[in-house]
């Protein structure tokens, strides 16, 4: 039978751990790499409700984007819902792996999926990934390029709502009627990288979790921005499931792969 390690080994050929940003707790999280697997579930986040979904679907292996352990556990008191979630994973022999910034930097990974969703033509890497010696590699986080047709900033915001299936977003712009064509996108919290967008001649920068003062600086520099939130990275659920299914067919793994059906976005618009 196929093991956790079989899938991890193949994935890390696609998105090596060397692509992870410093201090990012990406990679193997909980369980055993030798565990045999039949049912694999992809998810953006590993939350208690996601673990319950996995248990109900007889999942052996959860493959997530966001690490389940951003911060080490200080104790194993099961009164803490996070600790209880760890206990449930172990009790039901569910292994967890997280592909975080290595997936963000990978060619054909997270940021290519996001760029494709908004229709960027021939996207190029935005923030170069550096090797251990500080030299640029052939990988980058974020993408920039030209839209297939120019559109107003406000219409680009509406497009983001449509393609990412969200009920609201935040816009930072001096003129929402400006026609724009050169756009950058970076999944997650990418506000600190806006100077890279300016250097590339970008007119609108799409990224999540923008800070107040960072947004003011963008306006001062004539850069518009769209903040559709962090949850747009949930695009990875179906993309990873499709990729793993293809690999299963190619390698005769005989595993079932499906995407979590839960929405783990903590925010609502009212």
List its salient traits.
270 residues; alpha/beta; Udp-n-acetylmuramoylalanyl-d-glutamate--2,6- Diaminopimelate Ligase, Chain: A, domain 1; 6-stranded mixed β-sheet; 5-stranded mixed β-sheet; 11 strands; globular; DUF34/NIF3
Write the layout of secondary structure elements.
Layout: H1 4-14, E1 27-30, E2 39-43, H2 48-56, E3 61-64, H3 81-91, E4 95-98, H4 101-105, H5 110-118, E5 120-130, E6 136-152, H6 153-164, E7 170-172, E8 179-189, H7 194-199, E9 204-208, H8 212-220, E10 224-227, H9 235-251, E11 256-259
Parallel strand pairs: 2-3, 2-11, 3-4, 8-9, 9-10
Antiparallel strand pairs: 1-4, 5-6, 6-8, 7-10
Helix pairs in contact: 2-3
Describe the overall structure.
With 270 residues, the protein is α/β, with parallel strands linked by helices. It has two domains: 125 residues, 3-Layer(aba) Sandwich (Udp-n-acetylmuramoylalanyl-d-glutamate--2,6- Diaminopimelate Ligase, Chain: A, domain 1), CATH 3.40.1390.30; 122 residues, NIF3 (NGG1p interacting factor 3)-like (Udp-n-acetylmuramoylalanyl-d-glutamate--2,6- Diaminopimelate Ligase, Chain: A, domain 1), CATH 3.40.1390.30. Helix content is 33%, strand content 27%. It has nine helices and eleven strands. Helix 2 links the parallel strand 2 and strand 3. The relative contact order is 0.16. The model has no long low-confidence stretch (mean pLDDT 97).
């Amino acid at each position: 039978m196929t093991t956790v390690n079989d899938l991890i080994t193949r994935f890390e050929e696609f998105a090596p751990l060397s692509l992870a940003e410093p201090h990012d707790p990406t990679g193997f999280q909980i369980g055993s790499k030798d565990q045999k697997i039949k049912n694999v579930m992809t998810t953006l986040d590993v939350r208690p409700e996601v673990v319950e979904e996995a248990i109900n679907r007889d999942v052996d292996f959860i493959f997530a984007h966001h690490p389940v352990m951003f911060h080490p556990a200080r104790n194993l008191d099961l009164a803490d819902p996070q600790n209880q979630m760890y206990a449930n994973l172990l009790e039901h022999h569910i292994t967890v792996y997280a592909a975080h910034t290595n997936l963000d930097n990978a060619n054909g990974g997270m940021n290519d999926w996001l760029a494709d969703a908004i229709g960027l033509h021939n996207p190029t890497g935005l923030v170069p990934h550096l090797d251990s010696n500080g030299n640029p590699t052939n990988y980058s986080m974020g993408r920039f390029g030209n839209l297939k047709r120019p559109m107003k900033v406000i219409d680009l915001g509406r497009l983001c709502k449509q393609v990412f299936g969200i009920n609201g977003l935040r816009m930072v712009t001096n003129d929402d009627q400006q026609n724009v064509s050169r756009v950058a996108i970076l999944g997650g919290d990418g506000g600190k990288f806006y100077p890279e967008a300016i250097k590339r001649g970008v007119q609108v920068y799409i990224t999540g979790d923008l800070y107040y003062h960072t947004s003011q600086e963008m306006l001062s520099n004539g850069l518009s921005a769209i903040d559709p939130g962090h949850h747009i990275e949930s695009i990875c659920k179906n993309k990873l499931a499709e990729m793993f299914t293809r690999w299963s067919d190619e390698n005769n793994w005989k595993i079932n792969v499906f995407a979590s059906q839960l929405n783990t976005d903590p925010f609502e618009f009212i």
